[in-house]
């Protein structure tokens, strides 16, 4: 992984293009890829890589080199993203290493066996403590530059241009007739509907899933199954459908304790940049109707004891890369931003509820304050780097290792919560057997640290701002955009290292631990911590059943016939659950969710409604167990009756209306006992089943503004 992410690769040298641009050609010229050489220092007979002081994972890394001296390295530049004192002669591509894990007495031996572009992967070895390292000369291999379509990049264009220039890749700012390797969209996957190959920096459905109501529903489902694991998200109510429940609970709290007066924060479902957010203490203060239309929003418990720096409330903007959903791969940028309020914090009271510069950390709000400080320094001003804040907390004795570990867990659990819906959207927009791109996406996690250092998830942005300039008044009434050094340092690094990870020519990049966020402990995320978090992925298994029975390519709703087929195939009907009861359950849940999703024009049962139905069925069949055990037992039962899926169906539903895998036997799940049919009718049915798939037009979304 690159130097900005938790799974970081050790950088060997800058990639240098030796070919020339051919602007008039559709096919780019091939370029030479120089192979990194050992250090240019004449005194170095070996190489050594150490981590920053205070880290526990890698305390010693000794590389010995025997044989001839190394050739001179033409790219002997210091490793970006690491303190200068933490790096010593990192440019030997093939040398033996001994890694001492501090505090354990264990030694991992290995050697740098793979070098790809600017990075070298460190592989563990259990048998040898000291391995010979000899100079090897490799002939330079030729490759063309990676091509990036930036025609839809919008506000991230400037940071993207700088990143592409640093990587010496090739940009197409007006698009290209031939296919590009990477397409960079500014808002959503549907910014360009004509992509059939390459990689797109947006997932279909991510905008919808990270809206405040859908995120709250997804996390609430996980809280039902794992209440102790998902306590990092404030208690939430969805308006207007849960207004009565919210009002009743607040009234009961006040009746039980007259001195108790909790504060709540109201966030519009489609709001961004702090627009429409306000604080309340009484349900009567809710603004439920705008014009003649009910306003959808989420109301949450307000965190009234945040951690303060310089008496100011602040939050963390953390950049998270979802590299893949199948298999799940998550990377966390080691550098982020911290956004500060512009008025000293006071606990909420009836008098100060409207003082947004005190309570809300949104940049777009606080920049309007006269107290906002634009600073060129990363550790002063109203916007600072995450590493500078972590260094400051560490200097005060805060256990940064524990804080960072909690943040990593929060990120992984949050992604697991939204992943089932994301997979349903993915199979609908890019069905199997249809050409389509692969996807990745940078998300912006907004995290608040409480006074006790517990991280709290505020929201997740599908379209985090990548602007590297800010508006400034240069004369009375005259404004212009000027560079923001802090934004440029962080955001260009995030985009550049994301592109490195998605480089289609570097398939073998692996990651090594690194000190994260200004001297915090080494960070690795999914799939590094698969064992610790795999038990949380129960709803994904339910989603796999849902996708399996959708039947129609591109569909996201389960019809009544498909739901009955699910019940019969999994053999869930019995004397206590007749098919009439199944129909009533389907109608009841589908009708309730149709009112909850008032803006949806599709009929049928969506995934969230199916999850509710599945919980209901599990409770009926395994009454004596707790909810989690009920769900696990029903999943095991269904999967045992269904059998394993084919490789194509494992990621998405089968193509050609559940066409059978080649060479496989007809499973009883998909096809009933065949009836006699005439040859003409058989030809007509076959031609209709396997006609080319037409992608349904995406639903119209409200304008999505970057956060």
UniProtKB/TrEMBL annotation:
It comes from Poecilia mexicana. Residues 34-45 have a biased composition (Low complexity). Gene3D superfamilies: ATP-grasp fold, B domain. One of its GO terms (biological process) is microtubule cytoskeleton organization. This is Tubulin tyrosine ligase-like family, member 11. Residues 1-45, 665-707 are annotated as: Disordered. InterPro entries: TTL/TTLL_fam. GO terms for molecular function: ATP binding; tubulin binding; tubulin-glutamic acid ligase activity. GO terms for cellular component: ciliary basal body. Keywords: ATP-binding, Ligase, Nucleotide-binding. The keyword ATP-binding applies. Residues 20-33 have a biased composition (Acidic residues).
């Amino acid at each position: 992984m690159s130097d900005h992410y938790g799974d970081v690769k050790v950088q060997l040298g800058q990639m240098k293009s030796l070919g020339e641009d051919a602007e008039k050609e559709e096919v780019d010229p091939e370029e030479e890829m120089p192979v990194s050489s050992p250090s240019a220092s004449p005194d170095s007979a070996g190489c050594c890589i150490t981590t920053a002081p205070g880290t526990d994972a890698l305390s010693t890394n000794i590389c010995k080199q025997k044989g001839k001296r190394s050739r001179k390295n033409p790219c002997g530049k210091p490793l970006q993203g690491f303190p200068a004192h933490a790096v010593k002669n990192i440019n030997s591509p093939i040398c033996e290493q001994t890694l001492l894990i501090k505090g354990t007495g264990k030694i991992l031996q290995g050697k740098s066996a793979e070098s790809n572009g600017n990075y070298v992967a460190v592989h563990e070895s259990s048998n040898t403590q000291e391995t010979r390292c000899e100079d090897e000369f490799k002939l330079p291999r030729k490759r063309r530059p990676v091509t990036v379509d930036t025609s839809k990049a919008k506000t991230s264009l400037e940071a993207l241009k700088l990143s592409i220039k640093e990587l010496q890749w090739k940009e197409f700012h007006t698009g290209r007739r031939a296919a590009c390797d990477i397409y960079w969209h500014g808002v959503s996957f549907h910014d360009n509907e004509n992509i059939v190959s390459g990689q797109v920096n947006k997932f279909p459905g991510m905008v919808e899933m990270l809206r405040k109501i859908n995120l709250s529903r997804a996390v609430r489902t996980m809280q039902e199954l794992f209440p102790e694991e998902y306590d990092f998200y404030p208690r939430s109510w969805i308006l207007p459908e849960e207004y009565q429940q919210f009002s009743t609970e607040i009234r009961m709290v006040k009746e039980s304790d007259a001195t108790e007066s909790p504060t709540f924060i109201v966030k519009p479902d489609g709001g961004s940049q702090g627009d429409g957010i306000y604080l309340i203490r009484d349900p009567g203060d809710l603004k439920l109707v705008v014009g003649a239309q009910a306003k959808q929003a989420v109301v949450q418990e307000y965190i009234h004891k945040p951690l303060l720096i310089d008496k100011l409330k602040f939050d963390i903007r953390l950049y998270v890369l979802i590299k893949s959903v199948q298999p799940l791969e998550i990377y966390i940028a080691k550098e982020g931003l911290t956004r500060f309020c512009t008025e000293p914090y006071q606990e909420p009271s009836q008098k100060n509820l409207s003082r947004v510069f005190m309570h809300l950390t949104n940049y777009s709000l606080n920049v309007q304050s006269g107290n906002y400080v634009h600073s060129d320094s990363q550790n002063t001003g109203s916007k600072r780097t995450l590493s500078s804040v972590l260094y400051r907390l560490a200097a005060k004795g805060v256990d940064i290792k524990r804080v960072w570990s909690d943040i990593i867990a929060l990120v992984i659990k949050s992604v697991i919560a939204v992943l089932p819906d994301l997979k349903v959207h993915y199979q609908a927009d890019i069905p199997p057997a249809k050409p389509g791109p692969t996807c990745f996406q940078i998300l912006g996690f907004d995290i608040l640290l409480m006074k006790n250092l517990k991280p709290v998830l505020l929201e997740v942005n599908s379209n985090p701002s990548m602007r590297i300039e800010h508006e400034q008044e240069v004369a009375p009434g005259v404004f212009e955009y000027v560079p923001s050094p802090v934004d440029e340092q962080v955001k260009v690094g995030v985009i550049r290292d994301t592109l490195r990870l998605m480089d289609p020519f570097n398939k073998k990049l692996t990651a090594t631990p690194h000190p994260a966020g200004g001297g915090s402990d080494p960070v690795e995320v999914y799939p590094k911590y698969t064992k610790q978090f795999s038990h949380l992925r129960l709803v994904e298994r339910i989603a796999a059943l849902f996708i399996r029975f959708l039947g129609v390519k591109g569909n996201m709703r389960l019809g009544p016939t498909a739901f009955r087929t699910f019940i019969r195939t999994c053999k869930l009907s019995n004397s206590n659950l007749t098919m009439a009861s199944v129909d009533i359950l389907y109608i009841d849940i589908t009708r309730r969710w149709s009112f909850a999703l008032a803006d949806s024009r599709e009929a049928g049962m969506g995934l969230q409604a199916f999850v509710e139905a599945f919980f209901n069925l599990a409770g009926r069949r395994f009454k004596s167990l707790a909810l989690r055990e009920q769900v696990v037992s029903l999943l095991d039962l269904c999967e045992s009756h269904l059998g394993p899926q084919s490789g194509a169906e494992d990621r998405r539903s089968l193509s050609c209306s559940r066409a059978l895998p080649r060479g496989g036997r007809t499973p009883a799940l998909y096809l009933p006992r065949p009836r006699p049919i005439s040859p003409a009718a058989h030809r007509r049915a076959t031609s209709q089943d396997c006609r080319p798939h037409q992608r349904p037009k995406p639903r119209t979304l409200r304008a999505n503004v970057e956060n």
